[in-house]
Design goal:
- The structure is a single chain.
- The protein has 10 helices and 10 strands.
Length: 240
């Protein structure tokens, strides 16, 4: 179970995220939505330790992530898939995946098991394991980014816009893979702009506005809400 208590975060002096409280049960998949600039990515960065200024508590089974460095957070099982994929273009697919398995480097059997799991999740990567990551399509690079995160065998996966800019067929392929992970009990927080993707995939939705949580609701109830169209319009507008 992951519980956020009064979490605030910023890159500089001005706060981006302020006083966020959230509770995610083990095995739950939740959505984090809101307009551009609402603080969604910053909140994920606070949980993964990649945002420099963090306050409050983020308790994973009682351990406060806010007191740990990013590599310690990964070792604890919280891993982020960043927006924009950020694969290492001059390196092969397999070497990109290997970078996600630092904790397993001295355990060859466990390492091979993680490779097998990732290649089963994304068979296309198995076919391209020796191909340079920079020569892959955008969708394949996103598979590499997710696969790299899965190499650490995470307990909590933080997904920042994983479907951004992808063709519909690739979206379905990646969504199918994430559904498999959800069925296995992996806890996930999904940042996503497209409500038609985020709501059916998650159990609860958290709406962020100007760095704060403005609404927490069942994704199913929100999907069937007569106000969904208006909400979608509001979320598509950048924060002034």
């Amino acid at each position: 179970m992951l519980e956020l208590i009064d979490v605030s975060a910023s890159y500089h002096l001005a706060p981006v995220v302020q006083g966020v409280a959230m509770r995610i049960e083990t095995g739950e998949t939740v959505a984090l939505i809101g307009p551009n600039g609402a603080g969604k990515s910053t909140l994920l960065g606070a949980l993964s330790g990649t945002v420099p200024h963090r306050q409050g508590q983020a308790l994973l089974d009682g351990v406060d992530l806010m007191q740990l460095e990013s590599h310690e957070i990964v070792a604890l099982g919280v891993v982020q898939v960043p927006e924009g994929r950020h694969v290492f273009a001059p390196m092969s697919v397999q070497d990109n995946l290997l970078l996600g398995s630092v904790a397993l480097r001295q355990r060859s059997r466990a390492l091979q098991q993680r490779f097998d799991a990732v290649y089963a999740l994304f068979p296309r990567l198995a076919e391209r394991r020796q191909q340079l990551a920079g020569t892959l399509s955008g969708g394949e690079q996103q598979m590499v980014a997710i696969g790299r995160a899965m190499m650490s065998n995470p307990r909590v996966l933080l997904l920042d816009e994983p479907f951004l800019g992808l063709a519909p067929m690739v979206v379905e392929e990646i969504r199918h893979a994430l559904n498999s992970l959800r069925a296995e009990g992996l806890t996930m927080i999904l940042v996503e702009q497209k409500l038609d993707i985020a709501l059916p995939f998650t159990s609860r939705t958290h709406v962020m506005i100007k760095g704060q949580l403005a609404l927490v609701q069942s994704s199913e109830e929100l999907m069937n809400s007569p106000d969904l169209g208006q909400l979608y319009f509001q979320l598509s507008q950048p924060i002034p």
